């Protein structure tokens, strides 16, 4: 067999909590792909060191000087390896699971194992033009951690208020449990206030960042907490060059089902960052109470669909796009200007230069 000369190499990493499967694949530049090596490593410092030696050994064997590393964003389990590779000046790519899934599906890959996924992702590195990963800034990383903890407390508060309501309306409620629930709710409320204050203090650690975040609060219904979540979860919109990329990342991209005469339900994918969608839920409910472009959008979508949640979701998506635009342009929200530029977001997404 004729020896293949590789001109491009991709290294894919299928990561789980305990370990990760690595696959090195090469391309000759003429659509010929070959797996060079594949192996599993522990997802810890020792495993990273073994992985690094293994990669260098295989690259040297084929006289390859550099490669691109690709991994899925698997919760937080990919972060340590991504940082380790980045600090060694490697080219790192992090993709969303739905991006990886779509590529594997397009390749006709039906089986699912760590080895098969790694091979599919390795080919994805070689055939797709993907943006390199850039770590989140220290302040935004801290802000993201605190904001996510705030979200946990808020969810626990809601659950316990529901428990208290159910217990108070039951027959002969247990006084001991009632007292415990009320005390726990008081504790959670104090925690919530403390974490909220910490979020405010963290936003002020970077003066430039704080000023840019304040601009987004000029949108009616958007508070600093919502801004903190959106900005932290998107790394200050650093990796997005279009509104389409951002809405897809947040799970607001539109999914249609249509074939021949069959027309299925149109909905958002929800395959994206749930923290952003959760953060924009209540602001969307509030902003439509004021006469503005969001209220107009809500009315149009509701009139067309007769579904409140669909209209509110359209408003959430619009809020995210406007926040992105204001951030990139470093401007405050101008209601009068926005009214002139009002666009039906579901049918005709605006360009970056408009709201």
TrEMBL record:
Keyword Coiled coil appears in the UniProt entry: yes
InterPro entries from the UniProt entry: Transp_IS110-like_N, Transpos_IS110, Transposase_20
Residue ranges of every copy of the Transposase IS110-like N-terminal domain listed in the record: 12-167
Keyword terms of this UniProt record: Coiled coil
Coiled-coil stretches noted in the UniProt entry, renumbered to this chain: 178-205
Domain Transposase IS116/IS110/IS902 C-terminal: start-end pairs: 214-298
A single GO BP: DNA transposition
Domain of life: Bacteria
Molecular-function GO term, any one: transposase activity
Keyword Coiled coil: yes
Record protein name field: Transposase for
